[in-house]
């Protein structure tokens, strides 16, 4: 029987640094029917203790579900470096007043500056650029009615209710036609800045005026 200890949680958290999120992708549901999807990020599980996924649901203006996507998480280098800062730079001269890591990288380093915002900002986009570990922004981030914003629903799990996890969800409503092909998780509401934790590409979800798309990012620690 596996024990749940501080060491276990630390080891699980450090597994994020590889960018591997162990949730097995299920499939893709679209208006053409149910089909098997490919894992676009090539993510593999290093351990079963840490996993997560991106889920996308699209609804027509009359409330009918017409598209569904689910993929493994893909943590980028910027997010990996920020996780190190959160774990190990929380005291002494390298910590700010609220206790978050403030070790500052220089030059072309990742995760520069203090961590002053939570990774609860969800963005979507229309770019087709392949996911790369050095990404700090989406290929083509959406604006206007589909602009990034803080998750409107955040649900925490713990060892009492099950596996410790955080589920973050946001609904976007289209004011015109758009083909959504990517999503990212950030710690800033300002577009085109660093602070990306994870990014994923998806098969295009085509929205018309009045359609809504629900983006859900999930991270788990435990098994």
How does this model look, in words?
The protein is mainly beta. The chain has one domain. The chain is built from two helices and eleven strands. The chain has helices at 6-15, 77-88; strands spanning 28-30, 33-35, 50-59, 65-72, 121-125, 149-150, 153-157, 165-173, 178-186, 196-207, 212-221. Strands 4-3-11-8-7 form a five-stranded antiparallel β-sheet. Strands 6-5-9-10 form a four-stranded antiparallel β-sheet. Strand 3 (50-59) and strand 4 (65-72) form a beta hairpin. The relative contact order is 0.21.
Strand order of the largest sheet: 4-3-11-8-7
Overall morphology: globular
Unreliable spans:
1-50
Average residue-wise pLDDT = 73
Distance between the termini: 12 Å
DSSP summary: helix tally: 2
């Amino acid at each position: 029987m596996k024990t749940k200890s501080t060491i276990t949680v630390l080891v699980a958290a450090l597994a994020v640094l590889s960018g591997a999120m162990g949730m097995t992708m299920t499939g893709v549901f679209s208006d053409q029917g149910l089909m098997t999807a490919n894992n676009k990020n090539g993510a593999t599980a290093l351990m079963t203790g840490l996993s997560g996924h991106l889920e996308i649901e699209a609804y027509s203006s009359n409330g009918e579900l017409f598209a569904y996507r689910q993929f493994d998480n893909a943590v980028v280098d910027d997010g990996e470096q920020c996780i190190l800062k959160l774990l190990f730079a929380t005291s002494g001269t390298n910590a700010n007043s609220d206790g978050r890591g403030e070790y500052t990288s220089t030059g072309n380093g990742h995760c520069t500056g203090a961590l002053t915002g939570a990774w609860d900002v969800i963005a979507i986009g229309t770019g087709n650029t392949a996911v790369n570990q050095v990404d700090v922004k989406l290929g083509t981030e959406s604006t206007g009615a589909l602009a990034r914003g803080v998750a409107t629903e955040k649900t925490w799990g713990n060892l009492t209710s099950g596996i410790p996890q955080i589920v973050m969800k946001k609904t976007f409503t289209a004011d015109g036609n758009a083909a959504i092909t990517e999503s990212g998780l950030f710690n800033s509401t300002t577009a085109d800045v660093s602070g990306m934790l994870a990014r994923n590409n998806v098969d295009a979800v085509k929205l018309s005026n009045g359609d809504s798309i629900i983006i859900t990012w999930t991270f788990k620690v435990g098994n």
